[in-house]
């Protein structure tokens, strides 16, 4: 049994990690770290775990934890891991970081968008961006995994094949993303109160949301050049789910015509046909967040607009699963040589 | 592998059955029966099943089905099973009926409340009421299981120990139950439209809801006499979940005092301590439907009101799992000698 | 124009008061008191008021306010008004208090249930309980109005005629009430976060909610004796609306039979036929919270259960209107001799 | 008193018309037309109107109606009005049509997008597109008003000043719109059931939604040339509200730089400063649908993205008010010389 520690176990992503790991046959959770709930029973913080988890919350001592477990998940605020990480720790334990600390290679970009100083830039280089479908092989040998953001996972996977194969002009890419409220975390903040969110909808972080540079970096690798995109997140009155609607200008073929449905579909299939967790839907079926809820799937599809010469791409995932804890488990499976889907054979729950 | 057929596979309960059976290691679904969607791919009716279920919907020919599978789940409208059941069928296949056709022993009571003629009363006697925690042994040897209603399961389990042990006067029992909207089914009816249900709440079926006689019959067995109760269901703007709040007058002890918290708790523990799927919560913690969502748990608790001499009992479950498909699977596990929890080790999903 | 001051203008009830008073032709709001937002533009706290309210939030100095306005609404936490009220103030200004400070005549009862010391018990006697349909005449001449609680208004009006006329045994009264989340206020508390409330339902304050003694006192007056009731509030995933489902044993008539529908209906009509804001629905129509949303109506109805000898009464209102700000305006109208419905001719918004 | 008739009074927009007209001091509703509910009391179809509207539903006989009222609102399915309109009718009564029948000047475009034959193209020319802020003067003298679509009103008003003044390249315009579910109407259709919509989000009508040509025509007038845009609607789990997020490339100034915030703001102010119902929010405040709920306001704002050279424009309105019934009343006010805001002085309801 692989021994697991979680720092930040009482956030929504932490709780989802616990849910998923409870169904994983090869692991055992040894440490429920939560600075705010030390000595409190985990099941008192999350009553869904009553009679399932008997453990008590512990602190976030990475040093001690590194000596007790094989892998640490850090589902912590930005800057935490960068502030405590040492070579000593990394030499003893694998780390899967659900924060953004090691997602962005250019430390200046990180510091500009996150407005905090990065306290261990020396580990950025070796960190592997844990978007499993893109970096599977690199992940397998890594010590430090930067688990991607929720919006990012959805935004990237939805457009990746077309950027990679040059079907669209990446500089025309506009990503309009909508998220359920669990992405905002469990902090007691006025804007996240039920009455503020329910029956309401808004954009936020317009032109400056922190997931923007992460999307640009990864899609830039696919494009083979630096790109800038518009990324606009929206808050939607539902618990889980991200829907990304993405727009880009299709590059014309040599004969001056647009690629056909079949040609675009073939490109998606090239990349995702063998990917268990990416489902390219059938023609004209639009992804819906409810169809992936509770599961590790990303549903994607697209529609060509002959009139404007653009393509509309759509992707849907559960922000707490494929957008956070599920992908973290998928990364763990790769790291430890388990079946990549172990613990993730979750059928979406409907309704 | 036990071979399973489902009639009514495209209702919400049917879809939930499919979800649960996909995670059951000893069964295989051979037949997705759905009169309305014959020849349509199941995954086109429920896109959450895309790339998970490849089968096409079939009709509801019980005769043919009985020759192909070991157990049939009928998640069908009232009267369907009673209209087609024969000794021939029952001699070849186990049946777990999610409708009310065989739940009530007195056929006149059934016909009065359901306002339809019962077309195979000869099978009522042998049918076993499939509330696993109460009838475990009888279920194991049955051919025909009457799977309990969603409200009923919640209402009965919440009060059962106190009725059985005579702590409350069952004739004072008032059950105020609240349900998410999936209990109303997938029929396209105006009152179930999003805009009619959302931001709204109402009672319905006041004094005449069909689950009333089912509750009265089962709690009457526990009381050792016929009882009548008030049962009022309410529609709540959420997908899943039933919460039952139940009120009854506590019988005084010989010394004229009310039983204490500890005494009542001990009675609940007597019946539920070893029941995996019934969780008696800790003192003063009120059950919440979200804490059991997606799982087969029923959470129960109670509070004594010294001022009025009454006890307030509360129970919460997921109407599609313990209130329908989950209990059906639990019944199947008992019928076939599987671990009772096989396929049901579902951690509640939060949020 | 009557000059109005509001203390606690930035709570949900305060904001609703502003909404209603904006549509009142005889008043002018002079003071938007809000301790937490002093010097901030009111419309920045509530963007719905952008270009409607230009004022800036002020403090809660009652002394100063009393010299500037004709009436003060205090939509403040328990204990605030009792802590600052003086004869000096009361001699200069009318006060409509939306807190519970002056609702309960027995100060020991208040202190026991609210667990705070009452700091101006000398004003309790003269305060008039502002349930307009019951106390209309007394309200007109009062200086200090104790505006009823949201649950209380709904619970009392639903049962009042039957208690008053002796049709039910008030000691058998059980009130199962369900409320939208705005009743919990705008405080940034974890249990009120969207993800905690949405798709969830729970009881709370079981056997000890503070509205209990208020209900008991008022219905006790109607019964002509002290009574105790069970009152259980529940939190429902919607913004607005309270639904009270109430159960009581019907007193039999001299001939040993239960009263008929028509007899009970006549009693409701006796009290409410001329009440604009109480609508007794037609036979078999259950009240729904959505049908009164945004308006000052209370919809009530009932159903007799011949089997159990009980009656099920139901009432629905908008907790922020008839349950708080609307009733406060109705009280103001009575105090100042305006048409009782001025500013309250609000058609419920559906959907 | 102006006499009003409504055809299609039992749809959501029809019900909202009734709500608004009840608060209008100069009109009287004489006819509640509803083909599906003839002879049924209107208040039985919409219980919110109990004791407010005593009338019974009538048929949709336009001829008869034209002789009884001064203005007819048709809140009817596409094709209805075009199928029954005659010169005779138009000569006797003003018509405000909430359907799309007379919104599009090019009948071929209408027939292509709506896939129905237009049965009275002879009236298209004289019909005035009733977007009050754009066509105020023309509306005043019209006989036939084509009341704009909900998405259209929001989409056009959000971008109009920048298109009109040439600040953006209209051919780069991408409109990503999100709507509450009341926009889908009150028809009993499976995709609009609570459990299908709740906790879910999806795009629909991608590249072919019928509001596209209406947006293109109107913004084309502003641009002074034909334009094509991408318009993608989404279904959101809320009752009311549309949020449009719009993207376009900013035209550079002569000096090669982008316009500044102040310059863009000045353009919005030029068009909307004196418009009561369009609120240009303060810098960096994003429109939220809840802030306009129940009111006739459109809230708009924008953000310049220096990195991509694009501007992100946002607009929010209540689809049943400014997006349908409110705008219809605003048009009626213009037609009959009333104060343009009569009956529309509605403060948004929050929460």
UniProtKB/TrEMBL annotation, chains A, B, C, D:
Places the protein is found: Cytoplasm
CDD domains noted in UniProt: AGPR_1_C, AGPR_1_N
Bilayer-crossing regions: none
Lineage, uppermost ranks: Bacteria, Bacillati, Bacillota, Clostridia, Lachnospirales
Family annotation (SUPFAM superfamilies): Glyceraldehyde-3-phosphate dehydrogenase-like, C-terminal domain (SSF55347), NAD(P)-binding Rossmann-fold domains (SSF51735)
SMART domains linked to this entry: Semialdhyde_dh (SM00859)
PANTHER family tied to this protein: N-ACETYL-GAMMA-GLUTAMYL-PHOSPHATE REDUCTASE, CHLOROPLASTIC-RELATED (PTHR32338:SF10), N-ACETYL-GAMMA-GLUTAMYL-PHOSPHATE REDUCTASE, CHLOROPLASTIC-RELATED-RELATED (PTHR32338)
Record-level GO BP terms: L-arginine biosynthetic process
Source domain of life: Bacteria
Catalytic residues of the enzyme: 150
Name of this chain's protein: N-acetyl-gamma-glutamyl-phosphate reductase
Sequence ranges assigned to domain Semialdehyde dehydrogenase NAD-binding in this UniProt record: 3-142
Protein family according to the UniProt entry: Belongs to the NAGSA dehydrogenase family. Type 1 subfamily.
Catalytic activities: N-acetyl-L-glutamate 5-semialdehyde + phosphate + NADP(+) = N-acetyl-L-glutamyl 5-phosphate + NADPH + H(+)
GO molecular function terms noted in the UniProt entry: N-acetyl-gamma-glutamyl-phosphate reductase activity; NAD binding; NADP+ binding
Family matches, as Pfam families: Semialdhyde_dh, Semialdhyde_dhC_1
Function of the protein: Catalyzes the NADPH-dependent reduction of N-acetyl-5-glutamyl phosphate to yield N-acetyl-L-glutamate 5-semialdehyde.
Gene: argC
Organism of derivation: Roseburia inulinivorans DSM 16841
Listed GO CC annotations: cytoplasm
NCBIfam families: argC
Record-listed E.C. numbers: 1.2.1.38
Database matches in InterPro entries: AGPR, AGPR_AS, AGPR_dimerisation_dom, AGPR_type-1, NAD(P)-bd_dom_sf, Semialdehyde_DH_NAD-bd
Signal peptide coordinates: none
């Amino acid at each position: 049994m692989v021994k697991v520690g979680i720092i930040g176990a009482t956030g929504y992503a932490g709780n989802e990690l616990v849910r998923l790991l409870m169904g994983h046959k090869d692991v055992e959770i040894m440490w429920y770290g939560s600075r705010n709930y030390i000595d409190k029973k985990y099941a008192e913080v999350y009553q869904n775990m009553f009679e399932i988890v008997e453990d008590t919350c512990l602190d976030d001592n990475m040093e001690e934890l590194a000596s007790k477990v094989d892998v640490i998940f850090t589902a912590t605020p930005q800057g935490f891991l960068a502030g405590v990480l040492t070579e000593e720790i990394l030499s003893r334990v694998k780390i899967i970081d659900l924060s953004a600390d090691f997602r962005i290679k250019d430390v200046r970009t990180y510091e500009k968008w996150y407005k905090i100083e990065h306290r261990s830039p020396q580990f950025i280089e070796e960190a592997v961006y844990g978007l499993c479908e893109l970096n599977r092989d690199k992940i397998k040998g890594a010590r430090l995994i930067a688990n991607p953001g929720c919006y990012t996972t959805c935004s990237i996977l939805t457009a990746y094949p077309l950027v990679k194969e040059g079907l669209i002009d990446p500089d025309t890419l506009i990503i309009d993303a909508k998220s359920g409220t669990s992405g905002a975390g469990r902090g007691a903040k006025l804007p996240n109160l039920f009455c503020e969110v329910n029956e309401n909808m808004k954009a936020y972080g317009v032109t400056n949301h922190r997931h923007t540079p992460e999307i640009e970096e990864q899609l830039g690798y696919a494009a083979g050049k630096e790109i800038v995109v518009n990324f606009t997140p929206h808050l939607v009155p539902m618990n889980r789910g991200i829907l990304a609607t993405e727009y880009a200008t299709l590059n014309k073929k040599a004969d001056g015509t647009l690629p056909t449905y079949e040609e675009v579909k073939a490109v998606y299939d090239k990349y995702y046909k063998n990917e268990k967790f990416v489902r390219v839907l059938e023609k004209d079926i639009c992804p819906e967040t409810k169809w992936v809820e509770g599961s590790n799937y990303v549903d994607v599809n697209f529609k060509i607009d002959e009139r404007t010469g653009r393509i509309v791409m759509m992707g849907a995932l559960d922000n707490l699963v494929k957008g956070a804890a599920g992908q973290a488990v998928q990364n763990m499976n790769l790291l430890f040589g388990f079946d990549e889907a172990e613990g993730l054979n979750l059928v979406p729950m409907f309704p």
